Amino acid sequence: MMNANDLIVLNFEEVRRRSIKVWKAIPQQMLSWKPDEDALTCAEMIRHLLESEFFYHQILIGRGSTALANVSNPFETIEFTTVDNELGFAQPYRDQFLSYIKSISSSDLENIQIDRSDVGYVRTLGDMLMRIAYHESVHTGQLLDYMRTMRIDRPKIWD
Question: Which residue ranges run through the membrane (predicted)?
């Protein structure tokens, strides 16, 4: 029988599996494409998602945005080259994040408060975990729209 942590991890794994299908379907020469000058490129969107997960993990550990005050961004040290390289670089951070989720108790999901009042909210740990997965889903949907606009084949993510 699956507990809450198992279901949360499954959700993160499924969101990422579908994201990777989309990311890898973008031709290398199109990773620098963006729909307008104010938008992120495809590569920037992928990088944003991977580094956001790292930063969200730090926020969860520190129970709020103030945890970021002394955290350096490991992604700043590398240039985006390929989706596979980006995923390889991010994997240790991903593993740490999923291990963190597996280590929390079900009461932590309801009782730990994550203070993001700097951006307008305070939420429970469980709520924050769902928001993090949703964040990736929304941006993956944006990339599917980018692909439609570029007139390139979009992968089937509803398998």
Answer: none
